[in-house]
Amino acid sequence: xxxxxxxxxxxxxxxxxxxxxxxxxxxxxxxxxxxxxxxxxxxxxxxxxxxxxxxxxxxxxxxxxxxxxxxxxxxxxxxxxxxxxxxxxxxxxxxxxxxxxxxxxxxxxxxxxxxxxxxxxxxxxxxxxxxxxxxxxxxxxxxxxxxxxxxxxxxxxxxxxxxxxxxxxxxxxxxxxxxxxxxxxxxxxxxxxxxxxxxxxxxxxxxxxxxxxxxxxxxxxxxxxxxxxxxxxxxxxxxxxxxxxxxxxxxxxxxxxxxxxxxxxxxxxxxxxxxxxxxxxxxxxxxxxxxxxxxxxxxxxx
Length: 302
What we know:
302 residues; mainly beta; seven-stranded antiparallel beta sheet; five-stranded antiparallel beta sheet; 6% helix
């Protein structure tokens, strides 16, 4: 497991994630033809396969703007793809395919200015055998007027509350700008035959939801006690239905921070009680074009 706080281009971050996952021996290269050598359009990409589950995780730098339906909103960002098969001849995902779009470099007009080939993003990243947790903030760009921060969690968690017949993976995506436009409209051309949209929560290959709290409960969000200075919280609960009455998992890679008490600061560490060694890093992030925070803490050490 590794925790980073650095500044890199998105395609470099994709390489770090893929290489770190493969190094854990729980994952393997999915297709050696998928590389980040070409950084135009959606050509910078990596795919890894989880050996035990047989599922494929594809990470693609979207360096060609995608339009949110017929709106005036355009964005570049990250595409996260899960599939239960791979077409070795066509070098593409196959079988059941779930796609979610993570727009962060956005503009209220066509012509997104940023070139993600050379667009260094300050980020925090945890990688381990179970997946990754990523938080990023795009650098200030005067032309692109709808820049969003972002959090992406991909976690394989075997601590299911019951056997549901589906994968042990889930995906969490959030940001502080533009979710409505990009989750209510198809964003540009289909990818591998699947419509592209922003989804907050995905349980491949079963459910995708977009609304806040739909399919997941943030339960008792973390805050710092005035009495003893400790953080108190309950882990979030993920559901297998949008009605939030089918809990199946409590994630380990992130916790929610209480936005009303807001007495935990960005960069604070939340350590689980001994003998546990797990720590979380608080990530209260704004973005260049929005003072709204995202209230999360991501795993730092297991």
